[in-house]
From TrEMBL:
Belongs to the ATPase gamma chain family. GO terms for cellular component: proton-transporting ATP synthase complex. It comes from Mycobacteroides abscessus subsp. bolletii 1513. This is ATP synthase family protein. It is found in: Membrane. Produces ATP from ADP in the presence of a proton gradient across the membrane. The gamma chain is believed to be important in regulating ATPase activity and the flow of protons through the CF(0) complex.
Amino acid sequence: MGAQIRELRRRIKSAGAIKKITKAQELIATSRIAKAQARVVAARPYATEITNVLTALADDAALDHPLLVERPEPKRAGVLIVSSDRASVADTTPTCFVLPRSCTRCCVSRARPRWCTSWAGRR
């Protein structure tokens, strides 16, 4: 009987420890989400302005350049990368240069992955 009580106490103590660890992980995740959301909000004005600038450049009627003409059957696609001079995360800069290669392939094959925001195959 005493062994069973000790076993139950040990299991209750173990469950309490797991509960504390889970709560700590939850608090950490909440903090990280809040920080990420703050970074997104802080980056919105920059993203809006860079979109406006690039749209104005592409839509300018005075620009009659062969690279800005939409082709019916594109064989190649050009990708303009606008990046910061420093990466806030170590993975940011390499990602900027890896994704466009895949995006270029999808633009030519007209198969759009969900992360590709500039897609030549759209109609």
